[in-house]
Amino acid sequence: MAHLIESMAYVGETPWHGLGNELAPKQPIEVWAKQAGMDWRIESSDVSYMANNDKGHNLILPFAEQKVLYRSDNFEPLSVVSQRYQEVQPREILEFYRDLTEQSDFELETAGVLKGGRKLWALARTGQSCSGQLI
């Protein structure tokens, strides 16, 4: 799976694959976004296709039910989805943790990009320890 990692950042122990940017604890979300490679946006565009008519002319026609998602930084396509699909921006993945890291004991542990931007992740420690007995 290490070959699918485009970029990542982490705090603490180096991941088993030895990839990524090591960060000091308690870094702001903005630093995580840059170091984890999540500082781009998902953009969308209408889908079109090319057809030839019986006179040999090329026609470019819309396919209104679909849209293509692509990266804002390198314009690489990510997927073709329905018009109803709602994108979650890479930055939004990290923003989910902002209040938890700033006001609670949560700490971001790792975040990154897989498969050219098709998969994004972020994980955090809760700051709570498990103690007690299993029954």
TrEMBL record:
Alphabetical list of Pfam families matching this protein? DUF932
Question: Which InterPro entries does the UniProt record give?
Answer: DUF932, Phg/plasmid-like_prot
| Name this protein carries in UniProt | Uncharacterized protein
**Organism ancestry:** Bacteria, Pseudomonadati, Pseudomonadota, Gammaproteobacteria, Moraxellales
